[in-house]
Amino acid sequence: MSLRFTDTHCHFDFPPFSGHEADSLRRAAAAGVERIIVPSVTADRFTRVMQLAESYPPLYAALGLHPLYIAQHHDEQLAQLEGWLTARPPKLAAVGEIGLDLYMAEPQFERQQTLLRAQLQLAKRHDLPVILHSRRSHDPLAAMLRRADLPRRGVVHGFAGSLSQAQAFVRLGYFIGVGGTISYQRAQKTRAVMAQLPLSALLLETDAPDMPLAGHQGEPNRPERAAEVFQALCQLRSEPPEQIADRLWQNTQSLFAL
Fold first, then answer.
1. I need a surface site. Which of 12, 78, 98, 255 has the fewest CB within 10 A?
2. Which residues define the annotated binding site?
3. Nearest Cα to 205, choosing from 236, 235, 176?
4. How many domains does the chain have?
5. Could you tell me the CATH number of the domain that includes residue 94?
6. Residues flagged as binding site for a divalent metal cation
7. At what angle do helices 75-87 and 109-125 cross, to 10 degrees?
8. Which of this chain's residues are annotated to bind a divalent metal cation 2 (predicted)?
9. Sheet of strand 59-63: strand arrangement
10. pLDDT tens digit sequence for 120-142
11. Which domain does 239 fall in, by range?
């Protein structure tokens, strides 16, 4: 039986995909990657991300203001985001990529939290799930999510925290994004987390063109490599591959209603 996958996190609006969309989608489909969610990072990319989703059936859009670009974000861009959410194009699947980051040089953490709080309120008002970025910020993020109490919840993408931090998100009803980190033998902590979490809590992703897999260091990551992330996950889990693939597909559907 052929397995089918969704890459729930791919920055398809960036190189090397820009200008090579059809070829990139053919390569993804050949690997069984049938659907790709494209999160935006800044307001000036909202239109492009939506155009991509509307032009190519496998693509879906998420719109949000990424914490790494905190210096570029302005309050009026929240009104822009709300305009898109109010219009609610059919291929708009989530609010994202949003979140917190304490790894960057000048985090402006209070501003990050203010911006995230506003975007969580928008997701709640418009009944959309969220795609969350979190680096060295899992505990404050979990606290904010608990207070926000979003009806549709979301996914903490590219997770590399502890098992107890992952379980805290799962208890709140959030999914955990499984990416290429697990393809590295040295990533013992993350591999152990993905082996122990319930299968019902996991989603598949690449974060392409970032987060290259083991064996592909120095190359741009690609959505077809979601199939390789899946193979790495199968090596860590006790369930049969067909069951894992089917559950990942169901999890994606239940969160994003694609």
1. 78
2. 9, 11, 97, 133, 157, 207
3. 176
4. 1
5. 3.20.20.140
6. 9, 11, 97, 133, 157, 207
7. 20
8. 133, 157
9. 5-7, 33-39, 59-63, 92-101, 130-135, 154-156, 175-178, 202-204
10. 999 999 999 999 999 999 999 99
11. 5-256
